[in-house]
Amino acid sequence: MAGIPGQRGGATIYSVAEAAGVSIATVSRVLQGSDKVSAKTRQRVMTAVEELRYMPLGAARSLAVRHHEAHGLLLPELSGPYYSELLMGFESRAAELGQSVVLMLAEGKDDVARAARSLATRVDGVAMLASAAIPDALPEMLRGSKPVVVIAGEAKPDVEAITSENTASAQALTAHVLRHGRRRLVFAGDPASGPDIRDRYAGFVAAHEDAHLTAAAPLPTELRESAGAALADRVLAGDLDTDALVCANDELALAVMKRLRQGGRSVPDDLAVVGWDDVMTARYVEPGLTTVRQPVRELGALAAERLHARITSADTVDETQVLPTQLVLRSSCGCAPDPLG
Predict the structure, then answer these.
(1) For residues 167 and 173, what is the distance between their CA atoms, to the nearest angstrom?
(2) What are the backbone angles phi and psi of residue 299, rounded to the nearest 5°?
(3) What's the total number of domains in the chain?
(4) For residues 235 and 15, which has the higher predicted lDDT (pLDDT)?
(5) Are residues 116 and 145 in the same domain?
(6) pTM higher than 0.90 for the full model?
(7) Would 51 be classed as within a structural domain?
(8) Three-state DSSP class for residue 161
(9) 3-state secondary structure at position 66
């Protein structure tokens, strides 16, 4: 069957229906999110959609004429300072390029892939954060219909990636904590949650290997305030044998420090705590938080710029672009306080 103009690979609603063994009306109901289709049938249809890389006709027309003048941005959530900085950088650069931004959050959605396909019909390209909340296969699922850029992830064919350097800075941070004489370090974060956290743990392990030490297994922890408080409670209760916490982001580290102080423990005398991101609060708390500064706003801006380049020209780079990060020493690791603040 001949494909409809604009449909990549000739995929149509008819070919999806044939592959799934259902009627085109059933395919339409599934794509519209109707609850009148059984879960088994819905799965067959969505499997066919993904394998054929089918996009509704409206999306194909939009791609052909590129009239949206909008960039899609898919994030796991909006809590915490990281996401707000990333969003501000992305939106600001998109606006400079004459583009609006359509934001979609994975949080609270039962079918993130379906929601992302819907988003793709309303924008000219999609940027997304590599995260456990967003399916790994999603960038490749969308690339056949719209340009895709992955933030804090890895490049794949027809998918560009923008990230910050993680491994070397995490290695330097961990080595610095070890030089303070700490030997029972715990990495708080889940390497399975995304390539950035995975690479930070790799740096943690490398620093231990350089010091001829064995790194402890990571402690899977969500990177949010509530998880930091719960982690500190384990320390206060004596359930966690550690003299230093290497936290995978500042939000986690700052929450740990606050709860430890409330529990009568001193940072860094009783426990060293370090983080990642260098959010504004990190320099104003007491003690100041030792961390790694990453250019989050610049990361968002570059993602918008590269997405626009892929949309408007043949300027495609199927590789990972890496922005530098910087170790920032304050006193939460055991360094003397900076008299200049």
Answers:
(1) 10
(2) -60, -45
(3) 2
(4) 235
(5) yes
(6) no
(7) no
(8) strand
(9) coil
